[in-house]
Amino acid sequence: MDALAGLTVGLTVVPQALAYAEIAGLPVQYGLYSSFVGCFVYCLLGTSKDITLGPTAIMSLLVSTYGRHDPVYAVLLAFLCGCIQLALGALRLGFLVDFISFPVINGFTSAAAITIGFGQLKNILGLRGIPRQFFREVYYTFYNIAHTRCGDLVLGATCLLLLLLLQAAKRRLPKTTGALPALDRVCRAIVGFTATARNAVVVLGASLVAFSCESQRWHVFTLTGTTASGLPPFRVPAFSRAQGNHTECFTDMLKNFGAGLAVVPLVGFLESIAIAKAFAAQNGYRVDPNQELVAIGTTNILGSFLSSYPVTGSFGR
């Protein structure tokens, strides 16, 4: 079961990471860079058996807001976020999460879902040059809707339909009542695995369709294009940044982060501990909020040395 879960989550995280990097306003490879360090760190330091650390939709939206769509800022934000979370864990301040009310959490999550969901509409329609500010994004998406690319719309709608059908297939899979013939067990296993790993299955199928069209020189889809290959070099995050004819020093970058230095670490911990506590209550074990802070903080610090942006626990995975 561990091998099956690892394979399923590993296949799922690839398309998720690409999509989350786009939400964060970064090149897609940065989503992949952010997706693997947390798995190695959390298995040693974490206290929940049901979550993995990596890029999530809410954290990607925050990185888009405070990371200025710049990989240098995003990676430095991960380092600073990790330092703050690790310090909070060392000071045993995990109890502070108990004072955040559920209406605040629900309001933030619902707003993020609306913002992220609508932000993906322009990609399904194949529109380019749409601003990222929410209200301007809504206006210009509808203003340019006449320029929708039919290929992107058909492929996007088909993928959504397949995802919903596979999800429904898993829910409607009948429960076993007694021993089943070998062929029935094999068929159930295939349907169950395909439905569980539906994100990866749909992305793989759509990629094959896009490859076939491109090989026939039918340029009907908007593609991600050339992506940097290989693992990122292990290096210290940049604490300054060349900007035109002058260099932004570390203090200038801190000022540009603004409230993000408080919001990103807090929301990252809040998202992860909420998921961990939900699964702990369901499966009958306890999680240690202070140790969770240490695990998330260590992940973000080490991840920043491998070009990761801030990560946290993921409910979907």
What does this structure look like?
There is one protein chain. The mean pLDDT is about 90. Helix 1 packs parallel to helix 4, helix 1 packs across helix 11 and helix 3 packs antiparallel against helix 14. The longest helix is centred in the C-terminal third of the chain and has 24 residues. The protein is mainly alpha-helical and about 325 residues long. The chain contains 14 helices and four strands. A two-stranded antiparallel ribbon has the order 1-4. A two-stranded antiparallel sheet has the order 2-3. Helix content is about 65%, strand content about 5%. Strand 2 and strand 3 form a beta hairpin. The protein folds into two domains: about 240 residues, no CATH class; about 70 residues. The two termini are about 15 Å apart.
List key phrases describing it.
317 residues, mainly alpha, 63% helix
Produce the secondary structure layout.
Blueprint: H1 2-23, H2 29-33, H3 37-45, E1 53-54, H4 57-66, H5 71-90, H6 102-119, H7 121-124, H8 134-143, H9 150-171, H10 182-196, H11 198-215, E2 241-243, E3 246-248, H12 250-257, H13 260-283, H14 289-304, E4 312-313
Antiparallel strand pairs: 1-4, 2-3
Helix pairs in contact: 1-4, 1-11, 3-14, 4-13, 5-13, 5-14, 9-10, 9-11, 13-14
Low-confidence stretches: none
Sum up the overall morphology in one term: globular
Our Rg estimate from Cα atoms comes to 21 Å
Report the β-strand fraction as a percent range: under 5%
Number of structural units classed as domains:
2
How would you spell out the order of helices and strands?
HHHEHHHHHHHHEEHHHE
